[in-house]
Design a protein that fits this description.
mainly beta; Dex49a from penicillium minioluteum complex, domain 1; 2 helices
């Protein structure tokens, strides 16, 4: 692939950069069209080496994405492109991205595996989609938009996901600048966005991040906590407003050194929209929104395996909606944090809705660790945890409220959430110092609601209070393996020191 990389570099598609007088939203196409990546993405003859990439938590790799070696897929008899990326456990993860209009439903999907499959299951379970296995082929019906993950032979290795999404077309308001990347391969250093800018990645655009050097760019840090040189983010906006990142293109950061760049960083911005893009193999945090407000992140796909490749983090941010996203990555996935002591608020009015998490290494949804300032009115709703596999710490779990600094955390709700499999704790509420705490301040946790939560294969929850007691925690209509929990002792509860008196099960 490296030789092919060099061959096509000369044929790089020129990026259009223009100040626009205003482009109205085009009508969305009718029919269906698979997202097809450039021929740069080829089959691999080194599948075992490709799979092994997922176990290298820090290294840059040979290949970031290949044609899947495991599945042929058709939708209503039409062949679909199937791609694969390395993941930490049981990889690679194969997937197809399909754009379509509503008149295309229902659609019949058929997978032909290259290995023996005896049974298959479509997740999340809330989709209500049943898979059939006949004559070695897997079939199921799709009746609407969503992320359909298929696991085979009762376990997660060689998983496949079909992403069925509505067409996205660019809308450029009058007076805005448009930066667009057409379908094809693009080798890019970094992109800085100013106010009133739309960055649009057309379907089939593949942006490959180039490794910076001290000769080409000044580092932001010559040595970070891990001893790595760090440069500005691949896509960044600071002190800007009205910033849009959109389109069904892909960003590949495989060739970057560990910690070299984060994919997307938004700092001190207002009115921000991020939608549609797919990010693979980030060397550190994927999408970080810091000290900002009025933010929407929608329909984003993230795959990764490297250490510290957090998913979507709202940090000291207000008024944010994150919905319809899928993440399988190498750290915490859907998270709210407060990391800046001088922030007026740690975060409030934040909603994660209809998101799907596959957490190989850390946590799935919640308030996670850095909690220097107060946070309130946080909602995780209509979400699903497919697998959460790590066991390396007691501070892990699917639904998390982890307060290790001095912030006061209140009014956090987890509603209509399903957890298919968790290796440690389905729920983990922890107050008190941890290995990541800064200083001795102990905050508080109160008014935490777990409502309409469905848990499979795990009764374990953890309640911890050191230096304080989490209190006013409610479990309402929580089921384990289909049976409603009516008393706290029906869970396998791990209690660490002090817990408040108002822990109720309804």
């Amino acid at each position: 692939m490296k030789k092919f990389f060099a061959m096509i570099l000369a044929a790089l598609t020129v990026t259009a950069l223009a100040a626009c007088s205003g482009t109205p939203a085009a009508e969305k196409p009718q029919g269906r069209e698979a997202v097809t990546l450039p021929n740069y993405v080829q089959e691999t003859t080194q599948i075992e080496q490709f799979i092994a990439q997922g176990s290298d938590a820090t290294g840059a790799q040979l290949d970031g994405i290949v044609r899947s070696p495991y599945y042929d897929v058709t939708v209503d008899g039409v062949q679909m492109p199937v791609y694969a990326v390395p993941v930490t456990y049981g990889g690679p993860h194969s997937f197809t991205m399909l754009d379509c209009s509503e008149d295309q439903f229902p659609m019949q999907v058929e997978l032909s595996p290259s290995y023996t499959v005896t049974n298959a299951q479509v997740l999340p379970e809330k989709l209500g989609v049943s898979a059939r296995v006949e004559s070695g082929k897997v079939t199921f019906t799709v009746n609407g938009y969503g992320n359909f993950t298929v696991i085979f032979n009762g376990d997660y290795p060689k998983a496949y996901t079909l992403f069925v999404r509505e067409y996205e077309v660019p809308e450029v308001p009058k007076g805005y600048q448009l930066i667009e990347y057409q379908a094809g391969i693009h080798f890019v250093d970094s992109i800085s966005l100013e106010s009133n800018t739309v960055l649009y990645l057309h379907s089939g655009a593949l942006l490959v991040a180039k490794q910076p050097t001290v000769e080409s760019e000044t580092p932001t840090l010559s040595t970070d906590w891990a001893g790595m040189t760090r440069w500005k983010s691949f896509i960044s906006a600071e002190y800007a407003e009205n910033v849009t990142i959109a389109g069904h293109g892909m960003i590949d950061l495989t060739n970057l050194n560990w910690h070299a760049r984060s994919p997307i960083s938004i700092v001190n911005c207002q009115q921000v929209s991020i939608s549609g893009i797919c990010i693979i193999n980030a060397p550190e945090w994927n999408i970080t929104v810091t000290l900002s407000s009025n933010v929407t992140v929608r329909d984003v796909i993230i795959f990764g395996y490297r250490q510290n490749s957090d998913g979507i983090a709202m940090v000291d941010t207000q008024h944010a909606l994150i919905e319809d996203c899928f993440i399988r990555s190498g750290d915490d996935l859907f998270e709210v944090k407060s990391m800046y002591s001088d922030s007026p608020s740690g975060g409030n009015d934040i909603v994660y809705r209809n998101c799907v998490a596959w957490a190989d290494k850390c946590r799935a949804f919640g308030i996670i660790q850095e909690t220097k300032n107060d946070m309130s009115n946080i909602l995780f709703e209509d979400c699903a945890v497919l697998f959460r596999l790590a066991t390396w710490s007691e501070e892990l779990g699917s639904l998390i409220v982890l307060v290790g600094d001095g912030g006061h955390i209140s009014d956090v709700t987890f509603r209509n959430v399903e957890i298919f499999q968790d290796a440690t704790y389905a729920v983990n509420v922890s107050l008190g110092p941890t290995d990541w705490s800064e200083g001795d301040a102990v905050g508080s946790i109160q008014n935490i609601l777990f409502e309409n939560v469905s848990i499979r294969n795990n009764r374990n929850i953890r309640l911890r209070g050191v230096g304080g007691a989490p209190d006013y925690i409610t479990f309402r209509n929580v089921t384990v393996d289909g049976s409603k929990v009516t008393a706290l002792d029906q869970f396998n509860v791990t209690r660490i020191q002090s817990v408040g008196e108002h822990i109720t099960v309804e």
